[in-house]
Amino acid sequence: MRYKISKKGKKVNRGIRFYSARFRERHSRVAENKGLKYNTYMNRNSLVPELTVSNFGKNMIEPRSARRPNYLKRSRFFAAAAAAYAAFAASICVLYAQTVFDVTVQPFADTQFFVDGVQTAPQVLETDNTLAILRFTFADEPQRLEIRHEGFRPVVLTHEELCRKQGFAFLSREDSNYDVVSVFQTGAKPKSVRFINDTQAAVTLLEANGADIIDTQSGTVWRIRPPADYARKEGFVESLVLPERNELWLSQMSASCVHVFDLNTLDYKRSVKLTGEWCKVMAYNQTSGRVYVSNWISRDISVINPAAYEEERKIPVAAVPRGMAFSRDGSYLYCAQFEDASGRSRCKLIKKELSTFKTVSESGTPGAKRHIVTDFRADRLYVSDMLNSCIEVYSLKDDSLIASIKVFNNPNTVVLSPDRSLLYVSCRGPNNPEKGYLYKGFKMGRLDIIDTRTLEVTESIEAGNQPTGLDVSPDGRTLLLSDFLDNRVRVFRRREQ
To answer: Does a structural domain hold residue 139?
Structure first.
């Protein structure tokens, strides 16, 4: 933009640095600088007004004589600034006089708190009677906060942990085989968790623009995402690790797309657009070398050739497909069906022959089948059923139902320990009975642990609001659990047996 100056029919740029030397010589003089950068006072007989940073770009500016009362305004400004500084200094003094820490505690009822050996009662900021967010206010800086609850192992938070805002205390029962060793805050609504190596895991985010990568060893968290056109649509739900191809795959249901990242560098590589709608769970068939993706809305399964990054075909399914698994030789596909076209959760486990894509069997009690995991050592298949709140156990020899194990409300993800001795189940809990699962309820979810030899629940661990994602480390010692509505991931460490 240019400032018009009538001088022999010529136009001169409004910016000071753009005036010609001749123009400056004839029509300007430098005035006293009153603290304003580039405060140049032009000849009043000319049509050029005073130019400052504050009025740069205005078409008409008052002469200096009309603005002299601004000294009064400046004095008022400095007086207000001095008052604000005094208030800030006073707040700093109060801050140093008192030390305030917020700590999340579970369980909360009947829990006792000791600060440097002295029992104290914190302020309750928020609680559902199971988990609570508490505020501790101290005259001096405490060195340790000890949390005790009868029947649970005590937890001690050091001064360093409190200052780092790592005030999470999830107490384990005295007879529990697991301890919560750390807690990671994530993006909105962590859906699934997946170990990508011994210490790092990918956490897909339903209401964020990608997936968080958490390092359980260093304690760091960072975000990976596809290009902006995809990322802004959010809706990231599941992940898949392909070590043979050194790749990490993320499914994004809102974009009906799968995104591929380098497993080592975690750099984005490319995206695979699907013709199915609302892609969810992914499964890799090692025999055929194909990736299968279940599509919620279109009720079909996409088959992707990872070498070409192309969708080859779709397999129609009568009901909504969720978890998938394959037979030992890779010639059959097992699919957990969640609900039918009318929205009723009265579905069975189906088995499809991949050479013909025909359904060869339907098994189990009608319900809302969610996730599947296979154990080829024992020739078993485990399926979570959210409607009936149970884990169904099938024989891989004849597809018959062996057992139905009762667990807590709404079992979701299932995962086997590396030695196949334990089956971990994330149970969302009763959800919010009035609004649905996207809203917090008054009861927390659980982590149920099943002994695969006895097919019995051996331990139930209180979790957060709707635990969903679940995975176990390759060595079997570390367990990750995402609290869907709390936006965090818990890290459990299994005790030495």
So the answer is: yes
Q: Is residue 82 part of a domain?
A: no
**Residue 165 sits in the same domain as residue 195:** no
How far apart, in Å, are the Cα atoms of 176 and each of 156, 222, 347, 356, 494?
18, 31, 36, 48, 9
Total structural domains within the chain = 3
Alpha carbon distance, N-terminus to C-terminus of the chain: 76
Structure tokens given for 211: 């997936």
Same domain, 276 and 377: yes
- What does pTM read for this prediction? 0.78
Q: Could you report the average pLDDT of every consecutive run of 10 residues in the chain (497 residues)? A: 45 42 42 36 34 33 44 55 56 55 89 93 86 86 90 89 75 93 94 96 97 95 97 97 97 97 97 96 97 97 97 95 97 95 88 95 95 97 97 96 97 97 95 79 90 97 94 96 94 88
- Asked whether 363 and 401 are in contact (CB, 8 A), the reply is yes
User: How far apart are alpha carbons 247 and 262 in whole angstroms?
Assistant: 5
User: Which residues are CB-neighbours of 16 under 8 A, at least 6 positions away?
Assistant: 38, 40, 51
For residue 238, what are the domain limits?
Answer: 189-494
